[in-house]
Each structure stands twice: as C-alpha cells, then as structure tokens.
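Hi R.,

As promised, here are both runs. First protein below:
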Amino acid sequence: MQLIIGNKNYSSWSMRPWVLLKQFGIPFTERKLRFDFSSPGSAFYAELARVTPAGKVPVLVEDDGLEVWDSLAITEYIADRHPEHPVWPRHARQRARARSLCAEMHAGFMRLRSLCPMNIEAPLQHLGPELFAREEGLRSDLARVGALIEDALRASGGPFLFCAFGAVDAYYAPVAMRMCSYGLPVSDTVAGYVERLAGTAGVREWVADARAEHDFVAEDEPYRQAPAARA
C-alpha cells in the first residue's frame, strides 16, 4: 500500500497514520506531495485530485485501487487489515475509550490547532508562553488535552496512553510536537509522556525527515516571514 502525505514539517494529519504504520513495522510506500495552496489548480491539488476528490492528505491507496482518506478512517482500515497488531486496545471498554480520545482530538482543540500549527523545524519556544498567557482558548484546550493524557496514563499505568503504543498515541503525536516546538507549559506527567512518545522509532524518524526537508511553505508559517538561517 501507498500512503500519500504532505510536508512532514507541517502535516499533522499525515503524521498520524505514517507513525502508526512505522511503529508497527507494517510495509508501505510513501508518496509526499509538497504543500502548495496558491490556487485550486496548483500541482498539489492537481496530483491529489487523481486519487481522491476530498482534496486533502493523507490518503492510503491499495494496490487494487482502493482509496481510503481521512486519518481516522485510515487508522480503522489499518486495524482491520492488521489484527495481529494492537492498533486499538484488545479490551472492548478500553477500545471504546481509546476511540473517544481519538475522536475528540480529530474534531476538537481548534484554538490549539490555529494558534500553534505544527511546525517541527521552527524555533518557536519563546512564543508558546506568550500565546498561553493571552489566549484563554489555548489554555482551555491545553488543560483538556493534559487531563485526557493524565487520566489515560493513570488508568493504564503507562508508559503510553493505553499501556502499549497504539492508535491513540499516534493521534496525539502531532500535539506532542506542538508542545515541544512552542514550549507550551504542561504538567510533569504530560511532559514525561511527550518525551516517551518523541523517543519512539516512528516519531523519531518522522521528526528527522521533517528537519531534513528544508522547505518553507509560507501559508503554514504564521510567525515567520522567511526560513531560519542554516549553517
């Protein structure tokens, strides 16, 4: 199967299924389309239109032509295709809880998303505390995310949200990247989880690839006018 993604530095939605597949060692090929939002007819949209009318990444394409779009739908498909891996918790009650955490992340936390778009490469640690101090919506979103993480770790005993790494951890990885990039204030429990998540093989590889892109997409850069200087 092939996973079509956007820039690794910016594409939080693409990160989720990519990290999940990598972490479980499920074979796939990657096709990266450079973000270009200049017009509906840009190369990005033209290429994407050939595989999905949704016009968004990620998209999973099977050899027989099956196309699965939306990161949550892709996650469910991976779980169906590979029941040998604990994509979701094995226990039904825990599985329902894990899906609830993913669904809330999928649909919510709009202030966190808009104020702190994923930008792995950018040195924005000075900005997070400033945003946190003045933006009530950001404080509210972070408090809710922190509570979800802490409650899940307390119930499971860790080290990940439902003990072993699974779909929920892949889903929370982009938020963990935001916490790091923006220096957002979080509890020691959340910080420890973020550190463990950042240390997984899948997240490490994604982050390394993102830092190696050396690409600057202005539409995804609300806080910088030019790329950072490089040695």
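And here is the second one, sequence first, then its structure tokens:
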Amino acid sequence: MTSKWFTDPDKLKSSQYATEKNLSARIYVHKKYSTNPIDYPIWIFDRMLEDFPQDATIIEFGCGNALIWTSNTHRIPDGWKITLTDLSQGMLDNAKQNLGAFADRFDFKVVDIQDAPFEDNQADAVMANFMLYHVPDRVKAIGELRRILKSDGVLHSVTLGPNHMLEHLQLIEKAIPHYEWRNDALPFRADNAVEELGKYFKMIDNIPYEDNLRITEVEPIVEYLASTARIENITPDELAKFRSLVEEIIAEKGEFYVQKEVVLFKSTGYALL
C-alpha cells in the first residue's frame, strides 16, 4: 500500500520537502555509490540537449533543489528560457540559493501542477521528473502538461520501476515489522506510465538509466532511510536493527548491493481525447 503522506500536498510541503534536507540525504547515496560512471544529472541533461530546441521555452515542475541545473550550469544553451516550479517555497528557495550567480537565468514559481498558471501552447519542453507519483489527480496534471506544451513540444517525465531499491526495501521489512511500502503501489511508475501518459500523448518512448548501488559504508544508507517519510513512527530500536543488518552485509560481502530502476518517458504528439 502507499502511505497517505505520499500524495498529501500539505504533508509534502510541511515535512518531506519543506527544505532540501531529506532529498539531499538520498541524493548523496546515489551520487557516491552509483555504478554508472555518468551521473544522473549529466545523463538527463544529455537527453534534454537532444530533445529540446536551442531556443526552447522550458518549464520544470517539481524542480526540487535544482540539481539538474546546478550540475550543468555551463552547458545551458543561451537561447533557453527556463521556469523552475515546485509545490514547496522552501525547495524553491534552496534551488535559487544553490544556483547562486546563475539564478538570474531562471524564473521561480510556486505551482500546483494540477492547476498550472501558464498559457496554452506556451512551452517547447516540460519536465516532471520524480514527482508525478506525488500528485493526487494525475489525469488532470498530465492534461495540464499537454495544454501548456506547443503541438510539437516534448514532455520529459522520469519515474521509478517496481524493482527500484528492492534490496533496500527488503532489508527494511526485516527490521521494521509494520513497514507497509511496496514499489508496485507507487501511483505513477515505469510499468504504468505509458498507459497514463497515453491518455494525452500519441508517441511515448521509454529510456532507462542503467544504474545500481554498491554501498560500502553504513551510515549514509541509514540516513537515507531516516530521511524518507515512508516509515511513520519509526523507533530508535528499529533504526538500530536496520543499521545492524547493513553492517552484517557489508562485513560479509564488502558492500551492500542495491538495484535501481529509473526510466525517462519522452512524450510527444497530442492524442485524441
């Protein structure tokens, strides 16, 4: 089952994404222990350069701490006009701070994707990465993305598959009996994205980002768990048990291997409604 917090905008804004703190704990693990030599922000920006025109008007929903942009500041084409949006003002503040001197290249707006304050046919490219699974009414949200896009525009939406972080989740279940999360309960995921996007878009390509984790230190993955809101009322004893299980695996195998399943869905062409 999916925890209630997962699509509750008030909880998301007030706790999980009030600032970048929780997100940064998880980003750290992926950056430090990923097996793909090309970091995700570089990989996704390569796809953007392939798909977005040199003079594109771009709107990103759920920009978070602007990691994609801070990792590629010197690669941004001069002709791009970019608006970064997020449901959380705190995340937008972090994004602006992280961009530093480059922040002037961007507009920043607090936006609910279900009721986006943008004109019809305004954007050449729209991004909604790792965020559509947080939206209560995805049919309405995806409809808004199509409305905002020009007829020849492109949507980039990245999400997770049912095997993402599987070994991590299995270990949590051993340590925390009341754990109720399953990836196949994720509202918008790699195995149902085409069906949901296909209500509004005619052509949908899925492009996997091939990667896994080989974790060699205990505390970063413990902090990863502690940063998530998937576990409600987690106790110190349960967290300690999880830490002990990770320690045992690393002591025995030299690493804690965790598979990842990350997929970019590139959507173009209006579908008939």
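A quick note on the second one: The chain has ten helices and nine strands. Let me know what you think.

Best,
J.
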